Amino acid sequence: MQLFLDGSDIDKIRKFSDLGLIDGVTTNPSIILKSGKNMIEIISELADIVSGSVSAEVSALDSEKMVEEGVKLSKIAENITVKLPITWDGLGACNTLSKKGISVNMTLCFSASQALLAAKAGADYVSPFIGRLDDLNLEGVDLISDIKLIYSNYKFSTKILAASIRTINHVKQCAHLGADVATIPIDIFERLVKHPLTDSGLTQFTADWEKTGQSII
Ligand code: G3P
């Protein structure tokens, strides 16, 4: 499973990218608002830091304007993926942009039928929002397995990019179910490595090693 970061904190994204752990980044209008920065500048910086896909979302709601914005965003860097909402206009824009060779991520996916349409429209990625389904007392990750089954039935190449991830368990469930990508908020990503037994085990090993009086180098 590829690991994307869902956010725009440049320092942290650079740090994890330098560790060789990050395959891409996703953003959305709420993330851009929170950053307080200019969207084009931040997307361009992110596209410089990571070599993989960087999703940049259009603001237009009509197909023609989405295509115009998508073409502009795609010119920021070679690794830009244009993010479009799953609406009829978004699907039309996806079809047009995909035919131009521009990578598209269809976002705000809450049903298998929407994911089927995204694949038919030629999307590179579809983004099911699992946390927001959980918010409605539904089992968000079930959508991942539904889409997985449909895409494998028809050998669609659209990648399942699990989004709206809220917990470490979501990451594990996405990996179990075979999501192609999980886009993870930075605070959750930071917690993926943590385990109290790792901390206590390391403390003990370090203390015992000091007692040996040896050195490796
Ligand atoms: O990329 C979409 C994702 O960030 C939405 O997450 O937590 O706002 O539902 P959330």
Number of domains: 1
**Which fold name fills CATH's third level, the topology?**
TIM Barrel
Mean pLDDT: 98
CATH class: Alpha Beta
- Helical amount among residues, as a percent range? 40-55%
Class by helix and strand content? Answer: alpha/beta
Bound molecules: SN-glycerol-3-phosphate
What's the alpha carbon Rg, rounded to whole Å? 19 Å
Shape: globular
Helix and strand succession? EHEHHEHEHEHEHHEHEHH
Please report the distance between the alpha carbons of the first and last residues. 36 Å
Count the beta strands: 8
Question: DSSP strand (E) fraction?
Answer: 15-25%
Provide the CATH architecture. Alpha-Beta Barrel
Low-pLDDT windows of residues = none
* CATH superfamily placement: Aldolase class I
Largest sheet: number of strands, sense, barrel closure: 8 strands, parallel, barrel
Strand order of the largest sheet: 1-2-3-4-5-6-7-8
Oligomer: single chain
Number of helices: 11
